[in-house]
Specification:
Largest sheet: 4 strands, parallel
Number of strands: 4
Radius of gyration: 19 Å
Distance between the termini: 62 Å
CATH topology: Rossmann fold
Strand order of the largest sheet: 2-1-3-4
CATH architecture: 3-Layer(aba) Sandwich
Amino acid sequence: MDDAANHSPDRAGLILLAHGSRDPLWRQPIEAVHQLVQAMQPGLPCMCAYLDACAPDLPAAAQSLIAQGVKHLIVLPLFLGTGKHAREDIPRLLDELRRQHPGCQFDLQTAAGENPRVTSLLAQLAIEAAAGTEALKHTDFK
């Protein structure tokens, strides 16, 4: 379907950016986030991208979205914190993409792990794990 909304000047797209790994099992949680985004927002152009060891990389994902008519690219690093990649490598890559695509807007979001909701969920998971371990101590497996 080729309608005007798909080619509006401010059409946004999302890149879920992760570190990357040669191990396909490592990518499953990243791809699961992508699938949930697509299920929850089917009209939102969204791609996974990786810094290392697997494809697509950030420039390839950006190019793919731009080819779909996206002019506003939002990059969400799926990292737990703002380490060297988030502080230096990703901004450098985005600066290069801005030079290559001056008609596009690139917005870098804070690392997902620094979102208070993610921190809260991780704390909840830790507490549940501890409670589960405590419960196992009191279980008789005979």
